[in-house]
Structure formats: C-alpha cells, structure tokens
Amino acid sequence: MSKLQVHQLNQLREIFGRFDMDSDGSLTMLELAALLRSLGLKPSGDQVQVLLANMDSNMNGFVEFDELVSTILPDINAQVLVNQEQLLGVFKSFDRDGNGYISAAELAGAMAKMGQPLTYRELTHMIKEADTNGDGVISFNEFATIMARSASNGQNMFI
C-alpha cells in the first residue's frame, strides 16, 4: 500500500468516525447520507438505501468501516479528502472554544470578524436552518451538510 493510500485510508477513518454519531463502528442510513452530503454528493433517500444495501456485505443493515473502504477507496479522489480537510479547517475557525460545536455566539463573532455582522433575526435563522437535531448548536456534521447544500444552490451560508 502506498503512502498516499495509507494517508487516504487514515483520512477516511477520521471522516467515518465523525459521522458514526453513536461510535458503534457502523453507519446507519442517516449517518451514511450525512457523510455523502459532506463530500459534496447529493443522493436521494432511495439512492442512499440502494447504496447501503450494496455496501452492506454482512447484511446487518449498517455500513462498517471495512465495507465503506472496499466500496469507496478504489474510486476515491484525493481532492474529495482535501475538500473535507479544508471544510474541517473552516469549521474549527468558527468553533473558537474547540468543543466540536458552533454556538450562536461563536457564529456571530466569526461573521462579524469577516465583516458580515448579523442581526439577531439573521443569527437565529442561520442556527435554526443548520441545527437539524435542535440542540441549539451546529455540529461538524450539520455544518458540512449546510455547506454542501449552500454550494449546490450557488451560495455559501457561512463563508
């Protein structure tokens, strides 16, 4: 295995871990869909279901890391992993306290620093749109999803 492949495998393991929300070593259909969206793909629910069925070699209804690797690594583009790393860097620049979440205060501060101060209404709208689980903060998973959606709409919500 070349150094590039080892590096790609390590990056893929890190990405897998970020989307394995319950840390059980497998991805549910929703976790798989979020991972794919973070990579800039836009699969429909049916496409994710078919993909999961094709990837799930042990037929347990989940995708384990080795199943993901055997499906993705032959086709993975190094640029996809670079994009994911860059996205993580942008996320970390918003996540000032490094707790893995972007709070409303962190979002307001980052936007003001970029010369884009937000009104309270704009701030609450951005948080509400990105915060899909309703916990009041934006996780990397939610950030990646909203950035992919914004990119596909030709706009960028945060940057």
Automatic annotation (TrEMBL):
The keyword Calcium applies. The keyword Repeat applies. Keywords: Calcium, Metal-binding, Repeat. PROSITE patterns: EF_HAND_1, EF_HAND_2. Residues 7-42, 82-117, 118-153 form the EF-hand domain. GO terms for molecular function: calcium ion binding. InterPro entries: Ca-binding_regulatory (IPR051111), EF-hand-dom_pair (IPR011992), EF_Hand_1_Ca_BS (IPR018247), EF_hand_dom (IPR002048). This is EF-hand domain-containing protein. The lineage of its organism: Eukaryota, Viridiplantae, Streptophyta, Embryophyta, Tracheophyta.
